[in-house]
Specification:
This protein is α/β, with parallel strands linked by helices and 537 residues long. Helix content is 36%, strand content 18%. The chain has 15 helices and 19 strands. The strands form five sheets. The protein has a seven-stranded parallel β-sheet with strand order 3-2-1-4-5-6-11, sandwiched between helices. β17 and β18 form a beta hairpin. The protein is globular.
Length: 537
């Protein structure tokens, strides 16, 4: 009975289990004009992207802070929030962004962002704390990491702990929520566990797999985040948050296997695998790259179990109780299989990857922009061609010389890049800023244009454009259709120049083959559609 109740609750907004704590929406189903205004940072990330719709459903007005607001286009809540350009480390931008804000969510961290992340985290937190105080923000809410008292912490866990202390010392009432492993479709921790368990029926593992962990479902994390906004001003402290189960990582993998219908795994612990070696092993087996795997592994070296459950005094447990491990895994797998993953760990850009959009001036910064451009007419409708284009990458691959793509992905992972294993958030639909293997969606105009920005390690910047150009009157179902494809590269120095000319001879095989095979796939889909049409009549 409890499981059925959980299933019913899981499809509803978390605000439904917080009666009396949230403002509630107006008669039109939208936040009231006088509702508290909430600012959310990290909206392009895994948690932030899920928190925004929950806050709207709870009746809060939301202001989304983003360095690149254009990356939020396509989000279902985009038109329902106030989107502001703001870098959390820029006091001038924050001054305007936090004006009239009642509650501010600080969901920023530098997990897997490379060297000097501690200084960057510290500086950004100090600037944000001071700006919030000067703007008379009534409450700050921060999601940090659960940690054991009195132990030397890993660098990333120590940094997240320091950020919480900075915010608590800001003079603004602050809620710091401390969580361990977050269970949810698309979270880095969940994906790491999922791929290790699914791909390795037998494995040797480091000793930390027998450390105790108190994981928590992403839905319960979101519920605590939403509920924290209503805490009274005299409450300013940290809270441990966790689910009802305390398990070792070994037990988590075995229980995942049981829920997923897999045979019991053979797991043998050894003492020679250091966190560094473990992270390299994780990056080879899972889609999580080494730069992100290492801080995740380092945090697992500690036993992370809640010391208290004081949060329940201000945010009571839901009527059906907190979500257990098995139910959280089951829900996550249902979303993955239904292609209903709202956000993923890949929402965050790869450290060192280019973030600037395709330049309009081909001679920007005194350099050149090399172009490989191809155009072909396809005996398919624009609609059929677009469906194939929008589904590239991930499980479907890149429609040409798959061995070359795999080798390029492997080489990229060996030098710290994302490689091809990130896949896609959704198998058939793309949004701006989605990750697609070692590319990121920079622009998508449905039915017309897909522009991908390279995030693999390169001595320069690269883009791949795929365009649908109707021929004739331009009807979405008219044949033929022009398929235009452009690969663009802006080299950095001599290494960039040499790279372009070294790979140029292979463009005909890689990009030419890609164009031909995409065109062929669209024509096949068009014939299947026309064959079905008479039968339907």
């Amino acid at each position: 009975m409890a499981e059925t109740s959980h299933a019913d609750v899981l499809s509803a907004p978390v605000a439904d289990t917080l009666p009396g704590l949230v403002p509630g929406v107006g008669p039109d189903g939208r936040p009231r004009p006088d509702a508290p205004l909430v600012a959310v940072t990290g909206v392009t990330g895994y948690v932030g992207g899920r928190l925004v719709p929950e806050l709207l459903a709870a009746g809060y007005r939301v202001r989304a802070l983003a360095r690149h607001p254009e990356r939020l286009r396509g989000r279902p809540w985009f038109d329902d929030v106030d989107v502001v350009t703001a870098d959390a480390s820029d006091p001038d931008q924050l001054r305007d962004a936090l004006r009239d804000v009642d509650i501010a969510y600080y969901l920023i961290h530098s997990l897997g962002s490379g060297r000097q992340f501690e200084q960057r985290d510290r500086r950004t937190a100090l600037v944000f704390a001071q700006s919030a105080r000067e703007a008379s923000v009534r409450r700050l809410v921060y999601l940090g990491g659960l940690y054991p008292e009195g132990q030397e912490l890993s660098p990333h866990l120590a940094s997240r702990t320091e950020v919480g202390e900075i915010l608590l010392a800001s003079g603004v009432p602050t809620t710091v929520l401390r969580a361990a492993v977050i269970l949810g479709s698309g979270s880095a921790s969940f994906e790491m566990m999922r791929y290790l368990t699914e791909r390795l029926p037998a494995m040797t593992v480091p000793r930390w797999v027998d450390n105790r962990i108190q994981p928590i479902a992403i839905r319960d994390v979101l519920r605590y985040l939403v509920g924290a906004a209503a805490m009274p001003p005299e409450v300013s402290r940290g809270f441990d948050i966790g689910g009802p189960d305390v398990l070792t990582y070994r037990e988590m993998m075995q229980r995942y296997a049981a829920v997923a219908g897999l045979p019991r795994r053979v797991i043998v612990g050894v003492g020679v695998l250091t966190p560094r070696l473990s992270s390299l092993w994780v990056s080879l087996v899972t889609p999580v790259p080494g730069g992100l795997a290492r801080p995740l592994v380092e945090s697992l070296v500690h036993e992370v179990v809640c010391d208290e459950h004081d949060i329940a005094e201000w945010v009571p447990d839901p009527p059906t109780g907190l979500i257990g491990f098995d139910q959280a895994v089951r829900q996550a797998l249902q979303r993955i299989h239904a292609a209903d993953v709202v956000t993923r760990w890949t929402s965050a850009s790869v450290p060192g990857a280019p973030s600037d959009p395709l330049p309009s001036d081909p001679d920007w910064a005194g350099g050149s922009l090399y172009v490989d451009e191809r155009r072909v007419e396809v005996d398919a409708s624009p609609a059929a061609l677009w469906r194939v284009i929008e589904a590239v990458g991930g499980e479907r691959g890149w429609y040409s010389w798959s061995l070359a793509w795999r080798l390029r992905g492997l080489a990229d992972r060996l030098v710290g890049g994302p490689g091809l294993r990130r896949g896609r958030r959704d198998p058939s639909r793309l949004l701006v800023d989605d990750a697609v293997d070692f590319w990121r969606v920079e622009e998508v105009v449905p039915g017309e244009l897909l522009r991908l920005r390279a995030e693999m390690r390169l001595p320069g910047l690269a883009w791949l454009e795929l365009r649908v150009e109707p021929v004739g009157s331009g009807g979405f179902d008219e044949l033929p259709t022009a398929f235009a494809q452009r690969a663009l590269f802006h080299p950095h120095g001599l290494a960039g120049q040499l790279y372009w000319w070294a790979v140029y001879p292979f463009h005909g095989i890689v990009f030419g083959g890609m164009q031909r095979n995409i065109a062929r796939a669209a024509e096949t889909a068009e014939r299947a559609r026309t064959d079905r049409a008479p039968a339907a009549r």
